[in-house]
Request: fold
Amino acid sequence: YRGCWGCEGTFSIANCIEDAGSVLAFLRGPESRDLRVDSERIVLAGASLGGFVALHAAARDPAVLGAASIAGFDFGAVALSHTGDTEAREDAIASFGEASIAPLTGTSAAALVDEAASLAADWQLARTVPALKDRRVLLLGGNRDTVAPSDVHLQPLVDEFERAGARHLSHSVLGGDHNFSEVRTALAQRLVAWLGKVRTTEQ
Reply:
């Protein structure tokens, strides 16, 4: 993402979603020809912020075959729950920690919290459901995740997909923390198995 880990530009959550769209445009353009990418068979996957980005970017791009969100953080839902609560805002700012903000350029924890608050309604992950309910979607969480607890960030989204009659939803809560430190082999196996289902659906 721009403004992250030495990349040029200013970091913001909105820019992350735009950057994912730019990557898709690049992969479909002539510049990627040497990479041997099949531009008609693209899926998006990400963890934490990346899971949020993967779902929103896929929802904006109907040519993306599917999206996987691994411990995806629902910035919109959390921001809505903090509306008008000054103490909750301060807690959210403190939760970022210096280590999380240090690699980011042109922003701050307060700026990111306020950005999410200003776009909370549009950024709820539930808003991606109408666009994604007929595509392959994988939602994974960890039962010891204290950053994006599954009961807040995963299960409400699963419920929303099921209410919408999602045809190709896969979801699971694994026995891990936010980084899936002890179950990464199982996590990789789930992701690979899901990718196989995407190919089957396509065919």
Notes: The chain has a mean pLDDT of 95.
